[in-house]
Every structure is written in structure tokens, then in C-alpha cells.
């Protein structure tokens, strides 16, 4: 049965006006766009190593050049200004700032971000800096990576360096982007860097990412002006049971614990969920959680960043689905430790080029749940978007009606959630540019701006022009 709210979210047919001050932006990540992999002191990250390993990334693609943003950043900022964006969410490359993951910062690396931020501010665009979007310095991985506590300690030192250098310019900071992917795809299923396949290491990594977040927030608060904002971005999975059975409800509970509450519990409530500890007891006793860790992790935040693309549908395993169909990449190893009895199912409806179902009602339901669970915590959509098989026509235009429909539907869901009481402060379209899409290489295009990779030429797609009008007016047109 489709509720009235779901119907409104999935079938917009009237103009909707967003609240005054609602923030309109777009987002990128350092390894996906910067290139310049060995310039000005930058050393390899785990993604450099992973991408250069045969068989890891489609077509053998790497981020060595990516969209060459490191050299074309002025052009990209000019595009943002042309599109009328209020804000730009980007990530700092840890190995560009602190190549070995320890010691003093490399000033050439910091200077790149200083120039970028200064140009954003000069054009009236608010910089939103993410400290970590998956490019761990390879030397830290060689020393054990995120499963080891020392990595969290090093991250706090890196956060302090970034805050000291950019805190007079950047007022909004995010510690981690999607730590679930870092922990469970990087150390569980191995479909992301560093490509390890150890369920216990994945759980250890999750804890030390949580700890890194808490230590980084504390370091940022110690150095930033009082008005600065600190946040974290989570890819909260909207988990739905396939049927109304108790078994399927329990499958959804297990995945919700591993996907969501493993982070929201300690970060926002100061404790790991008891059911998560019970579900994973055969793998670990969680003795890597030390006395005082939960207090360090549980730091006050100014908002929660929410990344959403598609819902997750699960059931009790009965032979009709496996963990490899969860939408996160195929592997013979599961990213879901302690959940071997759960099957994943393709949600109904249209799909994007990623094979992900288009379902704005999932975003509405997710926002309403977060508002109920954490009623005093503002929310920002830090990523939402879709990949389609875009191409430039003979006239040099890129028409992408599927992306326009996708974004319109999801913005309608956000608007409905706001009307129903959710405190949503902004929306960042993923992504500003076509770019290196992790293990998919350059085969998937998420950008509002088309990139011709051989030449680097940027072409705003029809969706970029459409989104520009929404951002400038604050009004979502009807279908």
C-alpha cells in the first residue's frame, strides 16, 4: 500500500517552495576528481594502490588524472558560480596534506586547498570540507590501516593540521564520508580499497573510524571559531523487509544494525546497540573497544549529513538472494559480518545505470525516521544523485532527462519531509562532475557536468541547467 506521503514524494506534480536559507550545493571527492597523483609531495593512497592492482577496477582505470581538477579548479569554480550554487562540498586528500599520515603538513598541498577555498569565497560559494573520503595514506594501511587504533590517533592529528590551515576560511567541516563503505567494503567484501576480506577486521575498522570521528571533532572544536559547524556524513541504509514475516523483520533488524546503528549508536547516543554485539558475538568480543572510547566518540554535532541513493530490501535467506546482490558490488566475501542468514533483493521499479532502484519514498521515510530518532539534530542531504549512460550529441549537448526526473522526485521527497516536520537544512547534488567512480572506473557518469575524459572538456548537462534554476529560485517545479 502506498501512503499519501510516498505518493507525493514519488509523483511530484506541483511547484514546491523550499524554506528561506535552504542550502543548495553539489559535491565531489578528492581521489575521484583531482588527479595529480604524484605532484607537490602527494604520495599514494589506498585507492592509488587498489586501482593499480590488475583486476580491481573496471578497464584498469585509475585516478592518476581523473578530471584533472588539481589543475582545472578555477574552471570548475567558475562553473559552480555560473550554476548559482550556494555551497560546494569537497574532500581534502590526506596524502596530499600529510603524505605519510604522520608529521608536519606539506604546504604545497595545503596551498592548493587555500586557493580553492579563497576562490569559492570570492564567488559567494560556501566551502564545506570533508576530512576523509576514503583516500587513506598507503603508509598507514601498511601499518595496519583502520582496523588499528593508531590510525584513529593519526587522523586526529591530520584534522588538527587541516583546521589550523583552513579554519579561518572554512566554517563547515565533515569528519568522515560514509565510514560504512570504508569499513565493510574496504575490509569485509574487498570491493573497495584496500581490498581486504576479513569480517573481524571490518568490525574493528568500524570502531576505529568511529573513534577517529570523535577525536577529530574534538580536535576541530579546539581550533575552530565557536561559530564553526562540525558534522559527519553517513550513508544511512533505508532497510525494508521483503514481507511482513517475523523472519524478514529480523533480517531487516540485523542489516540496520550493521549498516546504520553501528555508527549512529556510538556517535549520536554513546553506545553500541546490544543486538549488534549479540549478532556478531561469534566473530568478536569487541574487546578492541576500550574504556572511555564511547565518550570520545559521542561528540556534539551541528548536523548529520545523509547520503541516499536507493532503498535496501532484505529477507531471511531462502535461496532466492545472496549478499552479492546488495547493490555494493559483487564479491565472494560478505560486507555483512554476522548476517549470513540474510538475503538481498532488487527493489521494484526503474533503475539507474548502477542498477539501483529509483525510489524517492525511501528518502522520505529515512528522513522521517532520523527526525524521530534524533529530533534535535538538523539534517543535510550531503549526497543524492544518479548515474545514467550520458553522451554528448553531435551538437555538443548532453540531455539527461532521467537524472532530472530522479532529482525532481527526491527533492519532492525532501520537501514533503520538511512539511511533515523534518529539519532538513540543505541538499548537495552528487556529483558536480563526471569522475572516477571507484571500482567502476570511468564507466559510470554521476555528474551534472559532463567530462570528456580525453580532453578534459566540461559540458553542463541539461540537468545542471535545470538544477541551477531550482537552486537560484528555491522552487521545485512540477513535473
Protein architecture, described:
The structure is a single chain. The chain contains 16 helices and 15 strands. With 479 residues, the chain is of the alpha/beta class. It has helices spanning 4-10, 30-33, 46-51, 69-83, 94-97, 107-122, 138-142, 149-166, 179-189, 199-223, 246-269, 274-279, 293-297, 360-373, 401-419, 462-473, and strands at residues 16-17, 23-27, 87-91, 126-132, 172-177, 229-234, 239-241, 303-307, 312-316, 342-345, 379-384, 424-430, 449-452, 457-460, 475-476. 40% of the residues lie in helices and 15% in strands. Strands 2-3-4-5-6-8-11-12 form an eight-stranded parallel β-barrel, surrounded by five helices. The chain has a three-stranded mixed β-sheet with strand order 7-9-10, covered by helices on one side. α1 (4-10) crosses α14 (360-373) and α9 (179-189) runs antiparallel to α10 (199-223).
Give a brief outline of the structure.
The protein is an alpha/beta fold and 479 residues long. The chain is built from 16 helices and 15 strands.
Amino acid at each position: 500500500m502506498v501512503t499519501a506521503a510516498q505518493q507525493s514524494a514519488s509523483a511530484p506534480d506541483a511547484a514546491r517552495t523550499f524554506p528561506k536559507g535552504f542550502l543548495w550545493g553539489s559535491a565531489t571527492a578528492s581521489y575521484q576528481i583531482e588527479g595529480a597523483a604524484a605532484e607537490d609531495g602527494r604520495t599514494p593512497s589506498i585507492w592509488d594502490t587498489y586501482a593499480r592492482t590488475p583486476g580491481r577496477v573496471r578497464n584498469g582505470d585509475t585516478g592518476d588524472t581523473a578530471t584533472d581538477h588539481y589543475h582545472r579548479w578555477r574552471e570548475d569554480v567558475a562553473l559552480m558560480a555560473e550554476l548559482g550554487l550556494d555551497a560546494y562540498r569537497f574532500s581534502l586528500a590526506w596524502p596530499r596534506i600529510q603524505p605519510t599520515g604522520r608529521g608536519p603538513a606539506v604546504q604545497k598541498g595545503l596551498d592548493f586547498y587555500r586557493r580553492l577555498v579563497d576562490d569559492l569565497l570570492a564567488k559567494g560559494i560556501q566551502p564545506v570540507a570533508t576530512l576523509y573520503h576514503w583516500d587513506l595514506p598507503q603508509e598507514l594501511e601498511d601499518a595496519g590501516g583502520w582496523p588499528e587504533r593508531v590510525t584513529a590517533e593519526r587522523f586526529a592529528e591530520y584534522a588538527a593540521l587541516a583546521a589550523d590551515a583552513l579554519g579561518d576560511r572554512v566554517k563547515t567541516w565533515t569528519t568522515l564520508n560514509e565510514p560504512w563503505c570504508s569499513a565493510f567494503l574496504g575490509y569485509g567484501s574487498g570491493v573497495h580499497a584496500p581490498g581486504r576480506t576479513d569480517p573481524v577486521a571490518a568490525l574493528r575498522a568500524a570502531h576505529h573510524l568511529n573513534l577517529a570521528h570523535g577525536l577529530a571533532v574534538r580536535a576541530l572544536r579546539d581550533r575552530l571559531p565557536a561559530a564553526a559547524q562540525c558534522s559527519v556524513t553517513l550513508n544511512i541504509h533505508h532497510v525494508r523487509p521483503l514481507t511482513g514475516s517475523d523472519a524478514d523483520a529480523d533480517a531487516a533488524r540485523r542489516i540496520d544494525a550493521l549498516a546504520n546503528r553501528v555508527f549512529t549508536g556510538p556517535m549520536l547516543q554513546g553506545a553500541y546497540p546490544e543486538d549488534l554485539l549479540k549478532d556478531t558475538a561469534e566473530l568478536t568480543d569487541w574487546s578492541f573497544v576500550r574504556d572511555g572510547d564511547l565518550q570520545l566518540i559521542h561528540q556534539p554535532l551541528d548536523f548529520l549529513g545523509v547520503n541516499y541513493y536507493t532503498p535496501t530490501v532484505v529477507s531471511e535467506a531462502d535461496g532466492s538472494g545472496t549478499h552479492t546482490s546488495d547493490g555494493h558490488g559483487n564479491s565472494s566475501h560478505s560486507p555483512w559480518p554476522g548476517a549470513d542468514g540474510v538475503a538481498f533483493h532488487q527493489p521494484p521499479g526503474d533503475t539507474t545505470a548502477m542498477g539501483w532502484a529509483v525510489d524517492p519514498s525511501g528518502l522520505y521515510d529515512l528522513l522521517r525516521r532520523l527526525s524521530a530518532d534524533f529530533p534535535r539534530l538538523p539534517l543535510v542531504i550531503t549526497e543524492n544523485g544518479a548515474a545514467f549512460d550520458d553522451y554528448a550529441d553531435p551538437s555538443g549537448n548532453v540531455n539527461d532527462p532521467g537524472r532530472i526526473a530522479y532529482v525532481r522526485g527526491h527533492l519532492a521527497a525532501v520537501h514533503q519531509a520538511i512539511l511533515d516536520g523534518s529539519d532538513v537544512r540543505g541538499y548537495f547534488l552528487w556529483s558536480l562532475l563526471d569522475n572516477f567512480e571507484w571500482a567502476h572506473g570511468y564507466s559510470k557518469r554521476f555528474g551534472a557536468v559532463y567530462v570528456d575524459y580525453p580532453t578534459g572538456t566540461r559540458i553542463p548537462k541539461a540537468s545542471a541547467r535545470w538544477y541551477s534554476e531550482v537552486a537560484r529560485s528555491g522552487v521545485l517545479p512540477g513535473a
